[in-house]
């Protein structure tokens, strides 16, 4: 199905109408075991990753090795390489590589409903898949965990682990994360051709299709530090792995694995060394034993059997580019100054010229809430959440008993960012996701939630309001009576309610299970469908068609002219709304090191800030989503982990708050 069919779908639609997880890998440039993790300097909890990056010669070698393996397998493909913050360093197309790819269709056994295709069965340029795979592997990884697109596939499906024998188990811990890093995000930056090295080149960059679940994307490491990712698209099928119990022989994954040789993730931090709910994650079904003789000479393939290709909005095709070192001003991330944040471990996003992109500020919504969050209150929430994170036991990092590393975002009720802070080595994906989570909690808990969703010009979006009200059994639901954390909205966004239980109806924000796919989750997808369509049209037209606006969704503008969910919504846990008495005044979102940890950091951050400043805090217990019993099942609000802290043996740390 081509782009024109994709563009028509919203019109047809209009007419018809958990777990802790997330890791990343490491490895050194020689493929050996990295040096032991150094101890933090006095006064610090964390060790910032070394400021290393991919050189032009590194990228040339990576591309040549991947091309050599793909050629040996008779499977010409497109190879993309990015740095850690998503800058595209190379896109190389082998002669004969498919120019297009098609997203997978149904996961269930039902008859497809054309009105709910969303992004299933869509044919787009294959280069977009290669870039999305590389971005995914780089963004999900850190010096403490190495994740691949095969890992991503495992953690976004309706049952975890995904396999024919696992129906009845809850959905993947990062269910819905694929719809982050979106091309319409107002947080992720955009490439400007000819401006490599300028402020326009800093990250974190957007991904053309969000995060990928199709095997063939692996992280790249130098001396144990993640420096980027490689993505290979060769078979024209952009899908996912529905069965982790078998071992695939995937040509794309083998080509990507060849590309990583000398830049591979350290064995000790690869996904299979990390568990979620007692299940080891998957990193790669391809092994080095299956590789052909490495071909590392870029000169041998430069214009021979293939060439660099331009991808509008991502790479100009003229020459390979060197990556930037994460933690430097040019990367878009750096240590905070004392005036920006009090904790000396804190990292902030920077504009490339020295200024914090999201400095702590007061809320902009006094007209709606009476007394907006003050800058001092926002600072208290961020600082208290950062303290909780620094004490928390990481879920997805090696070595065991490392402190958690996340990104923390605070917003007002308009969705305006009031401050973003992170630990030094938190995975990059959590930057955009933490803001998504905060905005989602602020929207669903807002008195205008129903009106906002009903005001979307696409009736497919508006229809979810009626479904939710019928499902909850309250015609006035989504009018601010109930406080929703992301765990709550996530429960309502699963293809089974309760989560995973086969034979039960889907939640009102989800597609039915026989129509669900990673490319069609329900409300989450519907909100950004037209934005992705517009962006694909821009890329495929070579820039002749306009690019998507730098704000996701077509919801009515909040006062001030911005969308309340300007980087999309998120549907896995890690956020809570913030209240002043009984009045919603904002929300906090956390992402990067296990969803129970994310819940705890956000919940205790809001609570402890209230204790500190005496004026704000979590939602009153009487209005929290866990007061709702739907179909005999209580909705969830937050879930805090067992034995959560490194410095105490305290349990049930969220109980009674």
State the distance separating the first and last CA atoms.
Answer: 52 Å
What's the helix count?
13
Give the overall form. globular
Q: Provide the helix percentage.
A: 10-25%
Main-sheet strand order equals: 5-6-1-2-10
CATH architecture of the domain at 355-445 and 575-634: 2-Layer Sandwich
Class by alpha and beta content: alpha+beta
Calculate Rg over CA atoms. 23 Å
Strand content: 5-15%
Q: Roughly what is the average pLDDT, rounded to an integer?
A: 91
Write structural notes for this entry.
The protein has 657 residues and is an alpha+beta fold. The chain has a domain at 355-445 and 575-634: Haem-degrading domain (Beta-Lactamase, 2-Layer Sandwich), CATH 3.30.450.150. 25% of the residues lie in helices and 12% in strands. The protein has 13 helices and 18 strands. It has helices at residues 3-16, 56-72, 126-139, 149-155, 251-260, 366-369, 375-391, 429-444, 449-454, 459-472, 486-491, 523-540, 595-613; strands spanning 78-83, 88-94, 100-103, 123-125, 217-222, 225-233, 237-238, 275-276, 279-280, 306-308, 333-335, 347-349, 407-411, 417-422, 575-580, 583-591, 629-630, 633-634. It has a 5-stranded antiparallel beta sheet with strand order 5-6-1-2-10. A hairpin with a 2-residue loop joins strand 5 (217-222) and strand 6 (225-233). Helix 2 (56-72) packs antiparallel against helix 5 (251-260) and helix 7 crosses helix 13 (595-613). The protein is globular, with a radius of gyration of 23 Å. The protein starts with a helix and ends in a 23-residue tail after the last strand. Residues 1-20 form the signal peptide. It holds the Pfam family HbpS-like.
